[in-house]
Design a protein that fits this description.
Layout lengths: L1 E5 L7 H10 L4 E7 L18 E3 L5 E3 L3 H12 L6 E8 L6 H4 L1 H11 L4 E7 L6 H17 L7 E7 L9 E3 L4 E2 L6 E4 L5 E4 L6 E3 L5 H6 L3 E5 L10 H9 L1
Parallel strand pairs: 1-2, 1-5, 2-4, 5-6, 6-7, 8-13
Antiparallel strand pairs: 3-4, 7-13, 9-12, 10-11
């Protein structure tokens, strides 16, 4: 089995190193990740300059671009054939609810999915990163399950793992994306040169976090597995739009 690994925290991040170590026991691993932290890059492609591909001392490849660039470059120009799977992570911090729109971790998996490869995004739900080993073990078990029992449809899975020891997990559940309140306002401040600069505000608190959502699962120490799709069409509004335009 051949697995392409990526992330949005950079090729030097501890999460991707531990993920590579865990999955190398069951598959041939190629790591192609951004040369620096590209959190929040979403599904952006770099079109205004060429990309460079370099190999680090540990064998990981890094690209001077986004997570989407990394997967696109690897699948369409670097690897001799399609990988059997793309796994993105292990991200430090959750990618739940509205976060998935902005997430570079999810974007890397999405690019794999768009290129015809089963893909998983794995996130550890805290900023401390105390239990990467738990997320790595979850990732390995899901990869093994997909290997043994392939789904009948193309799959893009967003996986969020509570930052707890393995023994404290309370199972794995299939969830839908929850929803956050709107983000906090930008933070205005002064640079050392007395220039006005702005920091993007913090994400909003969970709004739709009831049972069945990814927020609820993680809060209850369950691994959240959310199947994602790419079709953005608001099908329920199609009749409304036709009626509106006909007036």
């Amino acid at each position: 089995m051949r697995i392409l690994l990526c992330n949005d925290d950079g090729y030097f991040a501890p999460g991707i190193e531990l993920l590579a170590r865990a999955l190398s026991e069951i598959a041939e691993i190629t790591v192609v990740a951004p040369e620096r932290d590209r959190s929040g890059a979403s599904n952006s492609l770099t079109l205004d300059r060429p990309l460079s591909l370099k190999r680090a001392a540990n064998g990981f490849y890094h690209v001077n671009g986004t997570p989407t660039d990394c997967v696109h470059l690897a699948v369409t120009g670097m690897l001799e054939g399609l990988p059997d799977m793309v796994v993105s992570g292990i991200n430090i911090g959750a990618n739940m609810g509205d976060d998935t729109i902005y997430s570079g971790t999810v974007a890397a998996a999405t690019e794999g999915f768009l290129l015809g490869v089963p893909s998983l995004a794995i996130s550890l739900c805290s900023k401390e990163g105390a239990h990467f080993a738990t997320a790595a073990r979850v990732a390995r078990e899901l990869v093994e399950l997909l290997q043994k029992q392939a789904l009948s449809e193309p799959v893009l899975l967003n996986v969020n793992v509570p930052d707890v020891p393995w023994g404290q997990l309370r199972g794995t559940v299939v969830t839908r994306l929850g929803k956050r309140h709107k983000a906090e306002p930008v933070v205005r401040t002064l640079s050392p040169r007395n220039e006005t600069v702005f920091w993007i505000g913090a994400a909003g608190e969970a709004q739709d976090a009831g049972e069945g959502t990814d927020f609820h699962a993680v809060q209850n120490h369950q691994v959240s597995v959310t199947p994602l799709q790419i079709d953005l069409t608001h099908n329920a509004q199609l009749p409304l739009m036709r009626e509106w335009l006909a007036r």
